[in-house]
TrEMBL record:
This is Methyltransferase domain-containing protein. CDD domains: AdoMet_MTases. The lineage of its organism: Bacteria, Pseudomonadati, Pseudomonadota, Alphaproteobacteria, Hyphomicrobiales. Pfam families: Methyltransf_25. It comes from Aminobacter niigataensis. It comes from the Bacteria.
Length: 252
């Protein structure tokens, strides 16, 4: 099953990207959202890496995620900090709210989990419909070069109990026409040199050209589209940037 984030995958994600770990995005979006007076939505909230710091900043932010395991980590992090989260288990394809948001933020390339172009465009339309007039959509994308690097990496993490978690990442397909990569992720849980558990997952991502995404935002009805490189708002993306951030507005 693709992009499922099962038990071991969620555990590894929580160790690798704990709550508050920033790639420049937390500080950037805190600043971009500081004038918001209405509610903010984070789709694909995950373990709360990004969500919890926003909530701690006093921003009225809600979130959803399809993974029960990831939501469990997020809820636990909120309880530890005496925060009152508004979280639901929903997916990109079917999420629905009976209210509109002043901003929707999708950090760290989560939008790229939607690998079919038609589905991605439909999601942009769903975002548009869930924004209040003059509401802003903010989306991070990875540059194309990050999809085409070396394959076959092995990473490891030590747990609090002294166990070992490993992740072997092997790319099995690169579709240059569909602009998609598929990787085989093998998660393993080791204790005293013995394998306790393992998970195998196919992980798919789609890359976007800068102009392509800007045109798709316009097609969905957004205006005032701004693409920024490396979390420097208004600075056009450059070839060596590690991240590209889009901001667009639903007209009044």
């Amino acid at each position: 099953m693709n992009n499922r984030y099962g038990t071991l995958a969620s555990w590894v994600y929580n160790l690798d990207k704990p709550v508050g770990r920033s790639f420049g995005d937390i500080e950037y979006y805190r600043q971009r959202l500081e004038t918001c007076t209405g509610p903010v939505l984070e789709p694909a909230v995950g373990n709360g890496r990004f969500y919890v710091p926003l909530l701690q900043s006093g921003i009225s932010v809600e979130g959803f995620d399809p993974s029960e395991e990831m939501l469990g980590y997020c809820l636990s992090a909120c309880r530890e900090r005496s925060l009152d989260p508004k979280l639901t288990q929903q997916s990109f394809e079917t999420f629905a709210y009976d209210r509109q948001f002043e901003a929707i933020v999708v950090p760290l390339g989560s939008f790229q989990l939607i690998t079919e172009l038609a589905s991605a465009k439909a999601l942009l339309s769903r975002f548009f419909d869930h924004l209040a007039p003059n509401g802003r959509l903010m989306v991070d994308l990875d540059p194309i070069g990050s999809f085409l690097g070396t394959s076959g990496s092995v990473r490891s993490w030590n747990t609090e109990d002294g166990d070992l978690l490993t992740l072997t990442d092997t790319r099995v397909e690169t579709d240059f026409v569909a602009q998609k990569t598929v990787s085989q992720l093998r998660y393993e849980h080791w204790r005293h040199t013995k394998l306790v558990d393992t998970e195998l997952e196919l992980f798919s991502l789609r890359w976007w050209g800068v102009n392509e995404f800007a045109l798709s935002l316009a097609e969905a009805g957004f205006v005032d589209v701004v693409a920024s490189g490396n979390y420097q708002h208004g600075r056009a993306p450059q070839k060596d940037d590690e991240s590209i951030s889009f901001e667009a507005r639903r007209p009044a």
